[in-house]
Amino acid sequence: MPVALNKVHKHISKKRGSIGALHENSRDAKRLRRANARDDRVSRVHATMARGRQSYMDRIKYFHEIVPAEAGAFSDNDMKDLAVRYINRSVPEIEQLQSERRKGRPPTRREEALLQRTDVENKEFQTGFWLPDLSHVDGVKALASWNGDWSALSAMKFIRLTKDGNKQPSAFPPGGMS
Length: 178
What we know:
Largest sheet: 3 strands, antiparallel
Strand content: 5-15%
Structural class: mainly alpha
Oligomer: single chain
CATH class of the largest domain: Mainly Alpha
Number of domains: 2
CATH superfamily of the largest domain: Translation machinery-associated protein 16-like
Shape: elongated
Mean pLDDT: 86
Number of helices: 6
Order of helices and strands: HHHHHEHEE
Distance between the termini: 39 Å
C-alpha cells in the first residue's frame, strides 16, 4: 500500500479494530476512499513524469556508457560526432527491418517509430541538440560519476549544440530552447 493510504488505514484500524465492519458512508470509509484516490492520482502523475523524462534519461545513459571515465575534455567536433552517433544509433536496425520487408509492403510500426525518432533528433540537431557539456574535464567526471538518477543530473552542466557547431549553455531540465 502507498504511504498515505497506509497511514489512514493504520490510524483507523487502531481506532476501530476491524476495518471490514465500516459502514459504507461513514467518515472513516470516506477517509479511506479519499486516501486511495490521492494515492492513485499521485502514482499516475509520477508515471506521466517518468515517461516524459525517459527520452532525456536514455540520452544521458547513452553518453554515460559511450564516454570513457578517464577521457579528457572533448572538442566541439568530438561532441558533434558523439551527437551524430547518438542520432544514428538505430540506423542498422532500420536497415535490417527494411531488408526483411517484402517489396511493396508498408513499413512495420517499429520501423516507423525508429524513423520518426531519428527525424525528430535530426531536427533538434539543426536547432540545438541538448547534451552534457563535455568540453571541460569537470563535465566528463560528472557524467562518469552519474548514478542514473534524475535528480543527480542537476549537478551537471548542459549545452545546446547545433549542426553548424554553435554551442550555447542550456538549463536543466531542458525546456523549449533553453
